[in-house]
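queue> pop job 88
queue> type: inverse folding (structure -> sequence)
queue> payload:
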C-alpha cells in the first residue's frame, strides 16, 4: 500500500512537471484551508527543490510575490513573481535577508523545513521543533493581520509548546497530515490562520505565581488565553 501511494504521487509529479511530490500536500492544504489570496505575498522557508513554489506561484498569480529560501540552491523557475535565496535560516542575518527580500509584509508564511534525519527520534524531533520555532518567529514579524502560516513539524515532546505559542498568535490552529504524506513519515503540518497581529497574551518578563507550567496541555493554554488571566508558556520569548 505504501509503495502504491509513493508510486502514484511520485509518477504524477514527474508527469505534471512538479519538482516534488510535496507539491500535492500544499495543493491539498490550500483547497482545505484557503491559505493563499490571489495576488498574495508569500515567504517559503526550506523551499528546495521548489514544488511548493510552483503551487504557490500558480495560485497567487503574476501580481503576487514569493520569496523562496533554502540551504540548497534552487534551480530558477519560470515565474516572475518568485525570488530565490540560498542560506541557513538558523542564521539571523539570513532570516533578515529573507524578510527584506519580500519588500513588505506577507499574507502567508510556509515552512516545509526538515532537519537531516539522524534516525534518533528525540534528536530529530528537537531539531524539527527548532526549525518550526524559527518559522513561527518569522511569521510573527512578517505576517499581515489575518495572514496564514503552514509549518511542518515532527511531533515530539515539544509539539504542545509549539501549539501553545501558535494559538497565542493565530485565531485558528489545526494539525493535519495531507494525503501525499509518506505513510512512513511521522510529520504533521500545523495550519494556523487568522493571524492576530499582536499576541493575545504577552509573555511575562519573569515567571509569576499562577503562570502556566511548561507541562500544561494546549487546552489549559487555550482556556487561560480565553480567560486572559494567565500567560501561556511562550517558547518565542
Ligand atoms: C522537504 S524539503 C522541502 C520541499 C519543498 N517544500 C518542495 O516542495 O520542493 C525540506 C527543505 O528544508 C531545507 N532546510 C532544512 N534546514 C534548513 C535551514 N536551516 N535553512 C534553510 N533551509 C533548510 C532543506 O535543505 C530541504 O531542502
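queue> result:
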Amino acid at each position: 500500500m505504501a509503495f502504491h501511494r509513493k508510486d502514484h504521487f511520485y509518477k504524477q509529479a514527474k508527469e505534471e512537471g512538479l519538482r516534488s511530490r510535496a507539491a500535492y500536500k500544499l495543493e491539498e492544504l490550500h483547497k482545505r484551508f484557503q491559505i493563499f489570496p490571489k495576488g498574495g505575498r508569500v515567504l517559503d522557508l526550506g523551499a528546495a527543490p521548489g514544488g511548493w513554489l510552483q503551487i504557490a506561484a500558480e495560485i497567487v498569480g503574476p501580481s503576487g510575490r514569493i520569496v523562496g529560501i533554502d540551504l540548497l540552491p534552487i534551480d530558477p523557475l519560470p515565474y516572475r513573481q518568485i525570488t530565490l535565496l540560498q542560506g541557513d535560516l538558523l542564521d539571523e542575518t539570513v532570516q533578515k535577508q529573507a524578510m527584506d527580500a519580500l519588500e513588505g509584509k506577507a499574507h502567508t508564511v510556509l515552512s516545509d523545513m526538515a532537519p537531516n534525519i539522524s534516525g534518533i527520534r528525540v534528536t530529530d524531533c528537537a531539531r524539527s521543533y527548532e526549525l518550526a520555532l524559527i518559522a513561527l518567529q518569522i511569521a510573527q514579524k512578517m505576517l499581515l493581520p489575518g495572514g496564514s502560516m503552514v509549518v511542518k513539524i515532527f511531533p515530539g515532546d515539544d509539539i504542545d509548546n509549539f501549539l501553545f505559542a501558535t494559538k497565542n498568535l493565530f485565531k485558528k490552529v489545526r494539525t493535519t497530515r495531507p494525503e501525499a504524506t509518506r505513510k512512513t513519515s511521522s510529520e504533521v503540518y500545523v495550519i494556523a490562520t487568522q493571524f492576530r497581529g499582536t499576541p493575545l497574551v504577552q509573555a511575562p518578563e519573569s515567571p509569576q505565581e499562577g503562570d502556566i507550567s511548561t507541562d500544561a496541555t494546549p487546552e489549559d493554554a487555550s482556556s487561560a488565553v480565553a480567560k486572559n488571566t494567565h500567560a501561556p508558556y511562550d517558547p518565542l520569548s
